[in-house]
Design goal:
The protein has about 280 residues and is α+β, with helices and mostly antiparallel strands. The protein has one domain: Neutral endopeptidase , domain2 (Neutral endopeptidase, domain 2). The chain contains 15 helices and four strands. A four-stranded mixed β-sheet has the order 1-2-4-3. A hairpin with a 7-residue loop joins strand 1 and strand 2. It is globular and about 70 Å long. The chain starts with a helix and ends with a helix.
Length: about 280
Amino acid sequence: MLDRIAKLQDKSQVAGPVASIHQVIRPANLNFISAQYPGVLFGIMPLPTSMTPANNLLRSDQSGTGMPAREFRLKDDDKSKQIRDLYLKHVVRILELSGESQPQATADAQIVLELETALANVAMDIAARRDPKNQNNKMSLQQLQALTPSFNWKAYFTAMHVPDSPAYRSLLLTCSAVWKSWRRPNLLSTGRAYLRYSTVNFTALLLSKPFVDENFDFYGKVISSSQEIQPRWRRCSAYADIELGEAVGQAYVARYFPPQNKARHPATAVFRCCAD
Protein backbone atom coordinates (compact mmCIF):
# COMPACT_ATOMS: atom_id res chain seq x y z
CA MET A 1 0.00 0.00 0.00
CA LEU A 2 2.80 2.45 0.84
CA ASP A 3 4.48 1.71 -2.50
CA ARG A 4 1.20 2.44 -4.28
CA ILE A 5 0.87 5.75 -2.46
CA ALA A 6 4.47 6.70 -3.28
CA LYS A 7 3.83 6.05 -6.98
CA LEU A 8 0.89 8.47 -7.23
CA GLN A 9 1.60 10.79 -10.15
CA ASP A 10 -1.75 12.51 -10.63
CA LYS A 11 -4.58 13.63 -8.35
CA SER A 12 -7.03 11.57 -10.41
CA GLN A 13 -5.29 8.45 -9.07
CA VAL A 14 -5.97 9.24 -5.40
CA ALA A 15 -9.40 7.57 -5.28
CA GLY A 16 -8.00 4.07 -5.85
CA PRO A 17 -5.56 4.04 -2.91
CA VAL A 18 -8.15 5.69 -0.65
CA ALA A 19 -10.63 2.90 -1.48
CA SER A 20 -7.96 0.28 -0.78
CA ILE A 21 -7.18 1.97 2.53
CA HIS A 22 -10.86 2.05 3.48
CA GLN A 23 -11.12 -1.68 2.78
CA VAL A 24 -8.40 -2.30 5.37
CA ILE A 25 -9.05 0.57 7.80
CA ARG A 26 -12.62 1.09 8.95
CA PRO A 27 -13.87 4.32 7.32
CA ALA A 28 -14.83 6.95 9.86
CA ASN A 29 -18.38 6.32 11.06
CA LEU A 30 -20.06 9.39 12.47
CA ASN A 31 -22.86 7.30 13.94
CA PHE A 32 -20.75 6.89 17.04
CA ILE A 33 -20.23 10.52 18.05
CA SER A 34 -21.66 13.90 17.24
CA ALA A 35 -18.97 15.89 15.49
CA GLN A 36 -15.98 14.01 14.16
CA TYR A 37 -14.40 10.60 14.18
CA PRO A 38 -10.75 9.93 13.32
CA GLY A 39 -10.41 8.41 9.88
CA VAL A 40 -8.60 8.61 6.56
CA LEU A 41 -9.71 11.67 4.57
CA PHE A 42 -13.49 11.21 5.02
CA GLY A 43 -16.10 8.96 6.56
CA ILE A 44 -18.57 6.85 4.63
CA MET A 45 -21.47 4.69 5.78
CA PRO A 46 -24.99 3.60 4.72
CA LEU A 47 -27.76 5.36 6.65
CA PRO A 48 -31.55 5.59 6.36
CA THR A 49 -32.90 8.87 5.07
CA SER A 50 -34.86 11.15 7.38
CA MET A 51 -37.98 11.15 5.19
CA THR A 52 -37.91 7.48 4.11
CA PRO A 53 -36.25 5.49 6.91
CA ALA A 54 -36.89 2.22 5.09
CA ASN A 55 -34.34 3.25 2.46
CA ASN A 56 -30.61 3.52 3.00
CA LEU A 57 -28.38 6.02 1.21
CA LEU A 58 -24.62 6.10 1.23
CA ARG A 59 -23.40 9.11 3.22
CA SER A 60 -19.99 10.73 2.94
CA ASP A 61 -19.02 12.60 6.07
CA GLN A 62 -16.37 14.87 7.54
CA SER A 63 -13.27 13.28 8.99
CA GLY A 64 -9.61 13.17 8.03
CA THR A 65 -7.67 13.92 11.20
CA GLY A 66 -5.71 11.69 13.53
CA MET A 67 -7.00 13.57 16.58
CA PRO A 68 -10.22 12.58 18.41
CA ALA A 69 -12.11 15.79 17.54
CA ARG A 70 -11.77 19.08 15.66
CA GLU A 71 -11.42 21.03 18.92
CA PHE A 72 -7.98 19.45 19.51
CA ARG A 73 -6.86 21.41 16.45
CA LEU A 74 -8.61 24.70 17.11
CA LYS A 75 -8.41 25.50 20.83
CA ASP A 76 -5.72 27.94 21.95
CA ASP A 77 -5.38 27.01 25.62
CA ASP A 78 -2.01 25.78 26.89
CA LYS A 79 -3.15 22.17 27.27
CA SER A 80 -4.36 21.99 23.65
CA LYS A 81 -1.12 23.52 22.39
CA GLN A 82 0.87 20.98 24.39
CA ILE A 83 -1.16 18.12 22.90
CA ARG A 84 -0.61 19.46 19.38
CA ASP A 85 3.15 19.64 20.00
CA LEU A 86 3.14 16.03 21.19
CA TYR A 87 1.00 15.03 18.22
CA LEU A 88 3.56 16.54 15.84
CA LYS A 89 6.27 14.42 17.49
CA HIS A 90 3.99 11.40 17.14
CA VAL A 91 3.50 12.02 13.42
CA VAL A 92 7.26 12.34 12.92
CA ARG A 93 7.88 9.11 14.82
CA ILE A 94 5.24 7.17 12.85
CA LEU A 95 6.72 8.36 9.56
CA GLU A 96 10.21 7.42 10.71
CA LEU A 97 8.97 3.94 11.64
CA SER A 98 7.40 3.70 8.19
CA GLY A 99 10.87 4.06 6.64
CA GLU A 100 11.33 7.79 6.11
CA SER A 101 14.51 9.58 7.10
CA GLN A 102 14.32 11.97 10.04
CA PRO A 103 14.51 15.12 7.85
CA GLN A 104 11.85 13.76 5.45
CA ALA A 105 9.60 12.67 8.31
CA THR A 106 9.87 16.12 9.92
CA ALA A 107 8.97 17.86 6.66
CA ASP A 108 6.08 15.48 5.91
CA ALA A 109 4.74 15.83 9.45
CA GLN A 110 4.32 19.57 8.94
CA ILE A 111 2.44 18.87 5.69
CA VAL A 112 0.15 16.40 7.47
CA LEU A 113 -0.62 18.86 10.26
CA GLU A 114 -1.41 21.66 7.80
CA LEU A 115 -3.92 19.49 5.92
CA GLU A 116 -5.52 18.12 9.09
CA THR A 117 -5.82 21.65 10.49
CA ALA A 118 -7.44 22.85 7.27
CA LEU A 119 -9.99 20.02 7.47
CA ALA A 120 -10.69 20.76 11.14
CA ASN A 121 -11.18 24.46 10.45
CA VAL A 122 -13.99 23.86 7.95
CA ALA A 123 -15.62 20.86 9.67
CA MET A 124 -19.02 21.42 11.26
CA ASP A 125 -19.07 21.58 15.03
CA ILE A 126 -21.42 19.59 17.25
CA ALA A 127 -24.17 22.23 17.19
CA ALA A 128 -24.15 22.48 13.39
CA ARG A 129 -24.28 18.70 13.00
CA ARG A 130 -27.40 18.54 15.17
CA ASP A 131 -29.31 20.68 12.69
CA PRO A 132 -31.30 18.28 10.44
CA LYS A 133 -30.94 20.69 7.52
CA ASN A 134 -27.18 20.12 7.59
CA GLN A 135 -27.67 16.36 7.60
CA ASN A 136 -30.00 15.98 4.63
CA ASN A 137 -27.79 17.00 1.71
CA LYS A 138 -29.07 14.69 -1.00
CA MET A 139 -27.23 14.87 -4.30
CA SER A 140 -26.54 12.87 -7.42
CA LEU A 141 -23.15 11.44 -8.29
CA GLN A 142 -22.65 14.34 -10.71
CA GLN A 143 -23.38 16.89 -7.97
CA LEU A 144 -21.06 15.11 -5.53
CA GLN A 145 -18.33 15.10 -8.17
CA ALA A 146 -18.82 18.81 -8.81
CA LEU A 147 -18.53 19.45 -5.06
CA THR A 148 -15.08 17.81 -4.92
CA PRO A 149 -13.79 17.80 -8.52
CA SER A 150 -10.28 16.62 -7.63
CA PHE A 151 -11.55 13.30 -6.22
CA ASN A 152 -12.88 10.63 -8.60
CA TRP A 153 -15.99 9.40 -6.80
CA LYS A 154 -16.99 7.01 -9.58
CA ALA A 155 -13.62 5.25 -9.34
CA TYR A 156 -13.86 5.20 -5.54
CA PHE A 157 -17.37 3.70 -5.48
CA THR A 158 -16.38 1.09 -8.07
CA ALA A 159 -13.33 0.06 -6.05
CA MET A 160 -15.47 -0.09 -2.89
CA HIS A 161 -18.13 -2.22 -4.69
CA VAL A 162 -20.80 0.37 -3.97
CA PRO A 163 -23.89 -0.25 -6.13
CA ASP A 164 -25.17 2.51 -8.38
CA SER A 165 -27.62 4.86 -6.69
CA PRO A 166 -29.70 7.79 -7.95
CA ALA A 167 -28.68 9.82 -4.91
CA TYR A 168 -26.15 10.08 -2.10
CA ARG A 169 -25.97 12.12 1.09
CA SER A 170 -22.94 14.26 1.74
CA LEU A 171 -21.79 16.25 4.74
CA LEU A 172 -18.66 17.33 2.91
CA LEU A 173 -20.15 20.69 1.92
CA THR A 174 -18.01 22.61 4.40
CA CYS A 175 -14.91 20.61 3.41
CA SER A 176 -15.28 21.24 -0.31
CA ALA A 177 -12.95 24.26 -0.26
CA VAL A 178 -10.13 22.13 1.14
CA TRP A 179 -10.82 19.32 -1.32
CA LYS A 180 -10.94 21.69 -4.26
CA SER A 181 -7.51 22.97 -3.30
CA TRP A 182 -6.16 19.56 -4.33
CA ARG A 183 -6.11 21.01 -7.82
CA ARG A 184 -2.97 22.93 -6.84
CA PRO A 185 0.19 21.12 -8.04
CA ASN A 186 1.83 20.87 -4.59
CA LEU A 187 -1.23 19.16 -3.13
CA LEU A 188 -0.23 15.86 -4.77
CA SER A 189 2.85 15.68 -2.55
CA THR A 190 0.60 16.66 0.36
CA GLY A 191 -1.71 13.79 -0.50
CA ARG A 192 1.15 11.30 -0.60
CA ALA A 193 2.50 12.42 2.79
CA TYR A 194 -0.97 12.46 4.36
CA LEU A 195 -2.01 9.03 3.02
CA ARG A 196 1.31 7.46 4.03
CA TYR A 197 1.04 8.73 7.59
CA SER A 198 -2.67 7.92 7.93
CA THR A 199 -2.27 4.39 6.61
CA VAL A 200 0.51 3.56 9.06
CA ASN A 201 -1.05 5.46 11.96
CA PHE A 202 -4.43 3.72 11.73
CA THR A 203 -2.85 0.27 11.39
CA ALA A 204 -0.18 0.81 14.04
CA LEU A 205 -1.93 -1.43 16.58
CA LEU A 206 -1.73 -4.32 14.11
CA LEU A 207 1.98 -3.88 13.38
CA SER A 208 5.16 -4.72 15.29
CA LYS A 209 5.93 -3.62 18.85
CA PRO A 210 7.59 -0.26 18.01
CA PHE A 211 4.39 0.85 16.23
CA VAL A 212 2.17 -0.42 19.05
CA ASP A 213 4.33 1.34 21.66
CA GLU A 214 4.30 4.64 19.74
CA ASN A 215 0.53 4.45 19.32
CA PHE A 216 0.08 3.91 23.04
CA ASP A 217 2.55 6.65 23.98
CA PHE A 218 0.34 9.23 22.27
CA TYR A 219 -3.24 7.90 22.18
CA GLY A 220 -2.98 5.96 25.42
CA LYS A 221 -0.88 8.20 27.65
CA VAL A 222 -1.50 11.68 26.18
CA ILE A 223 -5.10 11.43 24.97
CA SER A 224 -6.57 8.84 27.35
CA SER A 225 -4.26 9.39 30.37
CA SER A 226 -3.60 5.65 30.58
CA GLN A 227 -0.30 4.70 32.18
CA GLU A 228 -0.11 1.05 31.15
CA ILE A 229 -1.12 -0.68 27.94
CA GLN A 230 -3.66 -3.47 28.30
CA PRO A 231 -2.40 -7.04 27.91
CA ARG A 232 -2.47 -8.35 24.38
CA TRP A 233 -5.32 -10.82 24.98
CA ARG A 234 -7.58 -8.03 26.18
CA ARG A 235 -6.72 -5.85 23.19
CA CYS A 236 -7.45 -8.75 20.84
CA SER A 237 -10.82 -9.25 22.53
CA ALA A 238 -11.63 -5.54 22.10
CA TYR A 239 -10.67 -5.65 18.40
CA ALA A 240 -12.97 -8.64 17.90
CA ASP A 241 -15.84 -6.72 19.54
CA ILE A 242 -15.22 -3.69 17.32
CA GLU A 243 -14.68 -5.44 14.00
CA LEU A 244 -16.80 -8.59 14.45
CA GLY A 245 -19.38 -7.40 16.96
CA GLU A 246 -22.51 -8.40 15.05
CA ALA A 247 -21.04 -11.68 13.80
CA VAL A 248 -19.91 -12.66 17.31
CA GLY A 249 -23.29 -11.56 18.66
CA GLN A 250 -25.14 -13.83 16.25
CA ALA A 251 -22.96 -16.79 17.24
CA TYR A 252 -23.53 -16.01 20.93
CA VAL A 253 -27.31 -15.82 20.51
CA ALA A 254 -27.39 -19.05 18.50
CA ARG A 255 -25.48 -20.86 21.25
CA TYR A 256 -26.90 -19.37 24.43
CA PHE A 257 -30.35 -18.14 23.39
CA PRO A 258 -31.85 -20.81 21.09
CA PRO A 259 -35.53 -20.71 19.98
CA GLN A 260 -36.75 -22.76 22.96
CA ASN A 261 -35.23 -20.22 25.34
CA LYS A 262 -36.82 -17.34 23.43
CA ALA A 263 -40.22 -19.01 23.76
CA ARG A 264 -39.86 -19.11 27.56
CA HIS A 265 -38.59 -15.54 27.90
CA PRO A 266 -41.14 -13.03 29.38
CA ALA A 267 -40.32 -10.50 26.69
CA THR A 268 -41.62 -12.92 24.05
CA ALA A 269 -45.12 -12.77 25.54
CA VAL A 270 -44.99 -8.97 25.59
CA PHE A 271 -44.02 -8.87 21.91
CA ARG A 272 -46.85 -11.24 21.04
CA CYS A 273 -49.35 -9.04 22.86
CA CYS A 274 -48.11 -6.00 20.99
CA ALA A 275 -48.34 -7.84 17.68
CA ASP A 276 -51.91 -8.91 18.43
